[in-house]
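Researcher: Batch entry, complex prediction.
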Amino acid sequence: MKKAIGLIVNPVAGMGGSVGLKGTDGEMHKKALQLGAKPVAPNRTQDLLCHIENKDRITLFVAPGNMGEEYVEGHDIPFTVIGTVRSETSALDTKRISDQMVNSGVELLIFVGGDGTARDIHDAINSRVPVVAVPAGVKVFSSVFAVSARAAAEIVDAFVEGVETTEEDVLDIDEDAFRDDRLASKLYGCLLVPSVRSFLQSGKAASSVARSSLESKKEIAEYVVEEMDPEALYLLGPGTTLRSITDEMDLSKTLLGVDAVLAGKLSGKDLNEKAILGLLENYDRRKIVVTPIGGNGFIFGRGSKQFTPEVIRQVGKDNIMVVGSKDKVSQLDCLRVDTGDWDVDQMLSGHIEVTVGRKEGMMMEVRC
Amino acid sequence: MLRETIRLDMNEVPYLPPRGVLEAAQKGLSSLNRYTEPQSLERLRELLADYSQVAKEHIVLSPGSDLLLREAIHAFAKGRRVVMVSPSFFPTVQAATEFATERLSIRLSPPGFDLNLGLLNDVASEPALVIIDNPNNPTGQTLLDRQAVETLVGNANALLVIDEAYYEFSGLTLADMVPSCPNLAITRTMDKAFSLAGARVGYAIAGRTFLDALSSFYAFLPQSSLLAAIEALSSRGYVRRNVQRVVEERERVWRALREEGAQVYPSTTNFLLIKTDFPDAANRFEEMGILVSDLSNQLPAGFIRVSTGTREENDAFISGYMRIREAYD
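Model: Structure tokens for the complex:
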């Protein structure tokens, strides 16, 4: 007996990332399109479908058009289209069709999107069936998500083979606050997921304001600033650890964006991919400085989508500097990347040194 | 109240040493007004050399092996990066933080907590003092084998210290390499398998490069510790029995926890590493009167390290674990 599995894709998820919009909830995807953003979800969906091993043991129920149907052809999986949509899709379509899928008897629902999509799915189906959440959004902080599309395929296979389910969190991220440089999140609810912990990401841990952590960030910042090459362009990623560096230089940092620093001065604020690539053309010596997301360890692919595969490729692994307080790094099993480009993910995998203090490093494994 | 507490947080062996060893310690106390006798120190070195199957000249005594590790860092960290693994024996981590100007840790990641030996060789290619606990505390994993050590000591830039505090449980030692490897030192303790944690007798089996820097501690060993250690080494059959009992109990606990679905890791030591799903696990055990080691300063939340106690203590731990999990579920 084949497993009936639903597939629903948020076609605009993730489009705000490379253009620095920090999300596509509501009407923001239109602005993303105007800025030249390209769809992210289709590639993630293809990546997922390519890597499901148990294709002969499943049958798919897919949403119409660019919400699912367009991607399943050629994958040798029987499918049925559920529901109807107009040319322009919305969250209401996600909610309505996912509800229809569950009513049609799907035993597992795969969705492709970000935290906003997860909220919509939660609203529609709650815990009626388990889900596999494929990360494609700009905001992917909920622990329901797989660490990558390929990991999501592994979770689908595990479900087909009978693995148990468990509850994971859906976070409510205030996108307007996020765009306004504040990360305001609270628990929105829970969804059931196949219990394969190694393929699920951990939720984001809040930045520590413990004295030891603040002192550690300051120590890192002092050291990084002392060691800065005055002729190199530094692209500083999001987060309070990176803000400590600009604080040390008396510069103002975009907390949740990418800023550029050269010779002690800001040479770009809240940069998107296009602006970063433009800057890179002018400087031979360039470095990306990032900090892992507390709790899940992502250095690329979550929260810093402006560092696109092309940007990372141009800068190169040797010029990526990772910094993080000991408090934060000690809570991580490894670092993670999920850029959406498997070759870049492979290039980044292996070990990388994380600066955790003055002349103090931790060699961490990077997994994709 | 204190007597009811079950101590499973310090990796002690729960069994007392034989009566003869206790009597030797008491004899040492009868000369409490005197400094340590040099001939007792030499006798202990001879016995440890025999036990370790190396020449006496390679044996350095110390009140606790952690002091030797601390001194090695103090003596050799200048101009060298101190390379360790993370997690590691925490007093060594603290000593490195205190004395070393440049530090690098290699993260051991679950599920295997394996050490990437290629990476270790790479980072030791520049002047480095490499300190590895083997087996590792707190993961319980053996990290280095003979081939890995041969490669490391073949690198003239590397000084290698291997902490074999749990050697008697793992059965693996590389002490025989010391005479031909000046840049290798092994630290050990009689705290664990010899049931002498209260005596604090540590020692190094040190290569030539280490000998000068590590030779100044033995005078601090109290006479009672010395005499207890001498008697223990003279009647060392009980050590094998200790190890056998501890290993059997460790494996029983491991099986019982696995049957309950706990995430417990294999060990070659006298303790187990457990990943629990509940936050503040150590505090919850403490509320039940069971002390376990909280590892949240080195590993993600939920990891605890539990020493192997007596059968009754271990049963109390297992039932405590189940009660906490039921309450958490």
